[in-house]
UniProtKB/TrEMBL annotation:
It is an enzyme of class 4 (lyase). Keywords: Lyase, Magnesium, Metal-binding. One of its GO terms (molecular function) is L-rhamnonate dehydratase activity. The keyword Magnesium applies. This is L-rhamnonate dehydratase. It comes from the Bacteria. Its EC number is 4.2.1.90. PROSITE patterns: MR_MLE_1. Residues 133-228 form the Mandelate racemase/muconate lactonizing enzyme C-terminal domain. The keyword Lyase applies. InterPro entries: Enolase-like_C_sf, Enolase-like_N, Enolase_C-like, Mandel_Rmase/mucon_lact_enz_CS, Mandelate_racemase_C, Mandelate_racemase_N_dom, RHMD-like. One of its GO terms (biological process) is amino acid catabolic process.
C-alpha cells in the first residue's frame, strides 16, 4: 500500500465562533492510497495548516507506505523543524497523523481502539463544559461539569468568580465532579487566593490559570494551590510535555490530539504520565479522535464534551445518560462525503 495523495480542506461548522477557532480552525485531512483506502484525520491551523499539508507534508509522504506511522511522524516533524516545533505546523501534522491511524485501522479492519490494545463498546463517563451557571440548570446528566471562567478574569472580579463556582456546586449537587477553566487569564497570586476560597466546594481542578509558558508560575502553584492544577491543552508534542511531567507542574494533563501531534504523540504522553503517576484527560476527549485513546489507554477514563460547532464531523458516538463508547467500525468509524461539505476557503 502506497500513498498517492494527501489533501486538506476546512469545512464550515454551524455556529463556529467568530474568532481564531474558525479563522485558524479545524481542518479535514485525507490520505489516499493505491489500494483504494482513504484515511481521514482532523488537525488545526485553518488555511495556514492546509498550506503546510499541501506543500511540505504532501511532498514528503507521496509514494511512501503509510504503515510505519512513527517513522513518518519523525520525518514530518523534521521537515517542519525550521518553522514548526509548536503551533500551526504541529496542528497540521496532527491531522495527517490521525489520517494515518485511520488508514491503519481500515487496512487491518479493526477500530483504532483495538490497535491501541483496548476493546470497543466500553461505556466511558463524560463531563460537560459550560460558559455560565445558567446552563447548568437545564443541561443533561454527566459525571461532571466544567465552568469556563475565561470571560471573567480581572483582579477585581475574584468575588464574582468565587460566587459563580459556589453557585455551580449548589446547582449540580454534591456528587458530580466540578472543574474550573481560567483560560490562561489569572495570575499566581489570584489563583492561590481563589483556590483557597473554593476548596470547600470540592473542585477537582483549576484548568490553565496561567500562560503555558509560565513554568515557574506553575511550579509555585504545584506547591501552593489548594486545588489541583490542570493544563496542556495549548501545548505541543510529547517533548514539550516531558518538562510538565518530570516537574509535575500539572496534576492533570490535557493534550488535544488534533493539536499536540496526533495519536502518535498522545500515546507517548499517556505512557510518560502513567509512569509519573499523573492523570491524562484529553481536551474535548468525547470527540472521536481522542475517545479511542481514552478507551484503550486511560485507567481513569473521563471524556470532555466536544466542540459543538464541529457539525461537519458526522457519525460520532452520541452521549447517552452521561456515557459514551466507541464502535467496532474500522479506523475511527467515520465516513465523509467530501463533495457535500461547504468550505470556509
Amino acid at each position: 500500500m502506497k500513498i498517492i495523495d494527501v489533501r486538506a480542506i476546512q469545512p464550515v461548522g454551524k455556529n463556529s465562533p467568530p474568532d481564531w477557532r474558525t479563522s485558524l480552525g479545524q481542518i479535514l485531512v485525507a490520505i489516499d492510497t493505491d489500494c483504494g483506502i482513504t484515511g481521514y484525520g482532523v488537525g488545526g491551523g485553518g488555511l495556514a495548516g492546509i498550506h503546510v499539508v499541501k506543500t511540505v507534508l504532501r511532498d514528503l509522504l507521496l509514494g511512501q507506505s503509510p504503515k510505519d506511522i512513527s517513522r513518518l511522524w519523525d520525518e514530518m516533524y523534521q521537515s517542519t523543524l525550521a518553522f514548526g516545533r509548536k503551533g500551526l505546523a504541529i496542528m497540521a501534522i496532527s491531522g495527517v497523523d490521525l489520517a494515518l491511524w485511520d488508514l491503519k485501522g481500515k487496512a487491518e479492519k479493526v477500530p483504532v481502539v483495538s490497535l491501541l490494545g483496548g476493546q470497543p463498546g466500553q461505556q466511558l463517563p463524560t463531563y460537560c463544559t459550560v460558559w455560565n451557571t445558567q446552563d447548568l440548570e437545564s443541561i443533561d446528566s454527566h459525571a461532571g461539569y466544567k465552568l469556563h471562567l475565561g470571560k471573567v478574569s480581572n483582579a477585581g472580579q475574584q468575588d464574582e468568580m468565587i460566587q459563580a463556582i459556589e453557585t455551580a456546586r449548589t446547582l449540580i449537587g454534591p456528587d458530580p465532579l466540578l472543574m474550573v477553566d481560567a483560560w490562561m487569564k489569572w495570575t499566581v497570586e489570584s489563583t492561590i487566593a481563589i483556590s483557597r476560597a473554593i476548596e470547600p466546594f470540592q473542585i477537582d481542578w483549576i484548568e490553565e490559570p496561567l500562560s503555558p509558558d509560565d513554568l515557574s508560575g506553575y511550579a509555585q502553584l504545584s506547591e501552593q494551590s489548594a486545588v489541583a492544577i490542570a493544563g496542556g491543552e495549548h501545548e505541543f508534542t510529547a517533548a514539550a510535555f516531558t518538562q510538565l511531567i518530570d516537574q509535575k507542574l500539572h496534576t492533570v494533563l490535557q493534550p488535544d490530539v488534533c493539536w499536540c501531534g496526533g495519536m502518535t504523540e498522545l500515546i507517548k504522553i499517556y505512557k510518560m504520565a502513567n509512569r509519573a503517576g499523573l492523570r491524562v484527560c484529553p481536551h474535548r476527549g468525547a470527540e472521536i479522535w481522542a475517545l479511542h485513546a481514552i478507551a484503550a489507554l486511560d485507567p481513569d477514563p473521563l471524556a470532555e464534551t466536544g466542540r459543538p460547532w464541529m457539525t461537519w464531523v458526522t457519525g460520532q458516538p452520541e452521549i447517552d445518560g452521561g456515557l459514551i463508547s466507541v464502535t467496532d467500525r474500522p479506523g475511527w468509524g467515520l465516513t465523509f462525503d467530501e463533495q457535500s461539505l461547504e468550505l470556509v476557503y
